[in-house]
Amino acid sequence: MISLHDICREFQVGDERVRALDHLSIQIDRGEYMSIMGASGSGKSTLLNILGLLDMPSSGSYRFEEKELTRLDEEECAAFRREKIGFIFQSFHLIPRLSAYGNLELPLMLKGIPPHERREMIVKALGDLGLSNRANHLPKELSGGQQQRVAIARAMILKPPLLLADEPTGNLDTHSGREMIEILESLGEQGVTLLIVTHDPQLGRRARRQILMRDGQIIGDTRSVLA
Amino acid sequence: MRIDDVVRFSIKSLSAYPARTALILLAMVISIASVIILTSLGEGARLYVTGQFRSLGSHLLFVLPGRTETTGGLPPIFGTAPHDLTIDDSIALAHSVLIERTAPIVIGAADVSYGSKEREVTVIGSSHNLKSVFELKVAKGRFLPDDDIYRSDRVCVLGEKLHKELFGHRDVVGEWVRIGNYRFRIIGILAPRGASVGIDMSDAVMIPTPTAQMLFDRPALFRIIVKAKNKQALPRAEQEILDTIRIRHGGEADITIIRQDAMISTFDNILKTLTWAVGAIAAISLIVAGILIMNVMMVAVSQRKSEIGLLKALGAPTHQVMRIFLSEALMLSLSGGVLGLIFGLASVPLINYLIPDFVLQTPVWSIFAALATAIATGLIFGSIPALKAARLNPVTALSGK
Ligand SMILES: Nc1ncnc2c1ncn2[C@@H]1O[C@H](COP(=O)(O)OP(=O)(O)O)[C@@H](O)[C@H]1O
Ligand SMILES: [Mg+2]
User: Cα separation of B243 and B253, whole Å?
Assistant: First the structure.
C-alpha cells in the first residue's frame, strides 16, 4: 500500500541543516500493524507527518496505492488526509469548547455531510468506544483515557484505511495506555493499517512488525529479519 | 464545509470568549449607530434649510442692483451701480407675461417704540404684492394697501414675534406705534410661521415702499423680488428682466439676478456633502472597531494554533481554515452592524422626541452604507488574521509552538 523511497527531510535551523530523515526507504502493506520506536529526535514524528501528508519530504518518492503523492498540491493533500488518514496525537487535540459529540462532528462537517446523516454515525462511533453517555461532555469533563477514546473515534469516523498514532499513550497511565493499544489493535483486526509510534517497549513489542529508528534512518525492522 | 456549519462553528467559537466578543460588538454598535445618527442629523439639516427656502414662496427671482461676473453668487460688495433700482423698474418688470408679480424691497433698521418699550427692528418697505410673493398670511387686520404704490402712508404691518414682544396678546390693529421719528398706524399683524432663511418677517415691521424711502432717506431699492408665472418660465423671465433693465438703464443691464431654485440647490448640495462628510467621519470610528477585530482575531489565531493544526490534520484545506476565521470576523462585524443599526434607528425618534425643534431624518442610503461598511470592516480587518491562520504550517501548529 505504501512505498517510501529514498526520503530525506531537512530542516534549516539557524545556519545549520538538520536532517530529520536520512535516505529512508520502507514498504508497508495493507493491514499491517507496525510500531515505530527510537530515541527522541530520531525522526519518528517526521516520518509519521510525511506519511500523513502534514509535511512534505525534501527529496525522495512517496507512493500510496501506486499513486505518487509528493507532487500533490495543497488542496489534494487536504483531500488525501480527509479520505485516507486518521491521526491520533499524544495530547489528544480535542477542541476544548466542543463536546465529545461536537469533536466527532468535525471530520463529518469538513466532508460536507449534512447534519441529519451525521447523527447516526456519531452515535454509533461513540457507542463502539463505550462513550454513549459522554456525548455532551466537554473534554475537560472527561478522563485522559476517555479523551483519547474520543480522539480515536474522531479519527476513525470516516473509516480511513491508515491510522497514524504518535505516542498515543504518552499522556496516559499504564492501565489506560494498555486499554488504548487494545482498542487500536481491534481496529487493526478490522483491516485498518496501524502505525504506532511509542516509547514503551512493552507496547511496541505487541506489534507484528517493529521498526527502530536512529538519526533519521531505520536501523532495525523485524520484517526484514524474518523475511 | 456547508455554510450553516461554518456559521454554527463560528458562533460556538465566539461564545467561548464572551467578554472579548462583547467588546468588539460594543465598538461596532457605537460606530454604526453614530453613522446613522450623524447622517440623520445632516439630512435633517438639509431638509430643514431647503424647506425654509421653499417656504419663501415658489419660483422667485431676486433682482439686485449692480452686476457680478458669476450669476447666482453674492451681490456686489464694492462700488455702487450707476443706476439705482426704482419702483418704476419694479412695475416695468411686472408687465411681462412670464411674470406674475413683483415686489420692491427697501430694508433698514429703525427704533420702534410703544409706551415705554423700545427696540431696534428691521423695517421692510414693500408693496401689497409682498404678501403673495412670500406667501405671507395675515392674522389680524390687513396687509399693506393695494391701491397706490407711490403713496407714502404712515401705516405698518407687524410681524408676529414683534407684536407679541411689544403688546403681548393684545389686538392692536388701529393703534399707533412710533417708528424712527414718525407715528404709524398699525393696520395688520402677520400670522406665525416657521423661521425664514434671509429676512425674518416675524421679527420685522412692514411699511409702504415710499414711506421707507423717506424714513431712510434712500431713493434706491434694496432689491426687487420677482415671482414668475411658473417654474418653466424662470429662465426666460430672467432673460426678459435683463432686457427690460438694459433698456431702462441706458443700455446696461447693471443688475444681478439670483434664482431661488439655484440657491436651494446650492444649499442642498452643501448640506448633502456635509451629510456625507459627517457620515464618513463616523465611519472612521469603524476603523477603530476594525483594528479591534483584527487584534482580537490575531490573538485568537495564536491561541487556537493547535486547533488550526487539527483542522488541517482532519483534512481542512487552506481556504476552509480561511473561511472559518473570516466568518468569525464577519459575524462579529455584521451582528455589531445590525445591532448598531437598530440602536441608531431607535435613537433617531428618541432624539426627535427630546429635541422637537429640529427633526432628524435618516437617509435611506445611510442604512445601506452603514451595513456595507460594517461588512467591509469585517472582511478587510478579518482577512489578515484569517490568512495568517490558513497559512500556518500544520506540524508546527499542532505542536502549539
Ligand atoms: N519543524 C522543525 N524544524 C527544525 N527541526 C525539526 C523540526 N521538526 C523536527 N526537527 C528535528 O528533526 C529531528 C527529528 O525530530 P522528530 O521527528 O520530532 O523526532 P522524534 O519524533 O523521533 O522525537 C530532531 O532533531 C528535531 O529537532
Ligand atoms: Mg516525536
Answer: 7
